[in-house]
Write a structure and sequence with these properties.
The protein has 415 residues and is mainly β. The chain is built from six helices and 19 strands. The chain has helices at 161-164, 210-213, 276-286, 322-333, 353-374, 399-405, and strands at residues 22-28, 34-40, 47-60, 63-82, 85-97, 104-117, 122-124, 133-134, 149-158, 170-186, 189-203, 217-231, 236-250, 255-268, 294-298, 301-305, 341-346, 382-386, 407-413.
């Protein structure tokens, strides 16, 4: 048995600990040894971009089943600050590589909403799968010297829907140990290093009789070794690296193991400085060839809706005029070479849900490939996803509404 997807959907989203600005206040003890008081400092409107990668191997009874390459991206905004805690809202995106290719396909998007206080503690409702790691790092209320150690409790929430058909997030408690290792200099800036180690040893409880009817994990043991880097000069998290190893005992008597490495970085994100003039310029240039194009501003960036003009009906075959239209689109994207681009395919509700999802993905992939062929600088910057019929912009009860729902969107992401 080999799972379709790693259960560790966002293993590298342990960088949830990188969600917010860390401010370091310096004090001095009587004996002259420097101490630092670690706190998260929040401001309404702060926006964070978290990007991480995972290289993971999956074993069943000590036999390698598959290697998985994952990319995770989080975009979060601090929408409210209440005393010592702040409300974070946004989403996490899960990408997986296609075979040996360097290209990643966007497979899922997870909305999230949670509070985190200045020490790192979480308050999050049960329905949210992300962030995976909650409460790492968590800081003591007292100042720290280099070499100091401390402990805390944390948790991990995992999406087992595709691997084990478990509907809700499964949450494991974790015992975490920290040590402030010291500082290094990187690019002229002083970077603090924190060793973070935590262990999970947990029995999953099910309703009576459940284990008899399904293949389910009932015991999980895991260890995680992280090296966190904090930019002391900027008062910001810098990055982290991690080794991890999970072992699951299954109700069938089998043993599954997930082992690998991950790393992540955080940046404070500035919005694309698009004015109404910029949007109107894009709209005007595209309407020379695509009269019905729609251009709008979203929290994630500039959204270009080109409809279904590139494709033959109910197909991912290009129309005769597609070359001209794609050239027009590439010309516009050339003004945003510093930004990542996402192609999103949509359909109406005619036909089966599975067929519509497949068609939307094939159209998104074809569009992305055609754009990369025309502009090689898009390689590594462009991803695609098919949404099928799940995101209608109009009613599917009329032909006009169905026509509007059959569309390809190009999102120029905030960088």
């Amino acid at each position: 048995m080999s799972p379709k997807k790693s259960f560790s959907t966002s293993r590298c989203l342990a960088c949830a600990g990188l969600l917010c600005i860390l401010i370091l206040f310096f004090t001095t003890t009587r004996d002259g040894l420097a101490q630092e008081l670690f706190r998260f400092r929040y401001k309404t409107g702060q926006r964070f971009h978290i990007e991480g990668t995972v290289n993971e191997e999956i074993y069943l009874n000590d036999t390698l089943q598959q290697r998985v390459r994952i990319k995770n991206i989080g975009n979060l905004t601090v929408t409210n600050v209440e005393g010592e805690r702040a409300l974070h809202e946004g989403s996490f995106l899960y990408y997986q590589s296609m075979g040996a290719s360097d290209e990643f396909v966007l497979e899922n998007e997870y909305p999230t909403r949670f509070y985190r206080d200045i020490y790192g503690h979480y308050e999050i409702e049960d329905q949210y799968f992300m962030p995976v790691v909650r409460g790492v790092p968590t800081f003591p209320k007292t100042p720290l010297r280099i070499g100091d150690q401390w402990q805390s409790r944390a948790s991990e929430a995992h999406d087992f829907r595709k691997v084990f058909n478990i509907t809700n997030p499964v949450t494991f408690p974790a015992s975490v140990s920290y040590q402030y290792l010291g500082d290094i200099v990187d690019g002229g800036q002083r970077i603090a290093q924190i060793s973070i180690n935590y262990v999970i040893n947990y029995t999953i409880r099910y309703q009576q009789g459940t284990l008899m009817n399904s293949m389910l994990p009932y015991r999980v043991v895991g260890y995680f070794n992280q090296l966190y880097y904090w930019n002391l000069d900027r008062g910001l998290p810098h990055s982290y690296r991690e080794n991890f190893d999970y072992i699951f005992l299954l109700s069938t008597g089998d043993v599954m193991e997930y082992t690998g490495k991950s790393q992540a970085w955080l940046t404070v994100e500035e919005e694309i400085k698009e004015s109404d003039r910029v949007l109107e310029d894009i709209r005007g240039r595209l309407r020379q060839n695509i009269p019905e194009v729609e251009v709008s501003r979203t929290p994630q960036g500039i959204l270009i809706n080109i409809g279904e003009i590139l494709f033959e009906f109910d197909s991912d075959d290009l129309t005769e005029s597609a070359d001209r239209d794609l050239d027009n689109i590439v010309e516009v994207l050339g003004d945003f070479r510093g930004h990542k681009v996402r192609v999103i395919g949509h359909t109406d509700s005619t036909g089966s849900e599975d067929y519509n999802l497949s068609l939307s993905l094939r159209r998104a992939r074809r569009t992305a490939e055609e754009l990369k062929n025309r502009d090689t600088t898009l390689r590594g910057r462009i991803t695609y996803i098919g949404m099928g019929e799940s995101k209608p912009v109009a009613s599917n009860s009329t032909e006009e509404g169905r026509k509007r729902n059959r569309r390809v969107e190009i999102l120029i992401l905030n960088d």
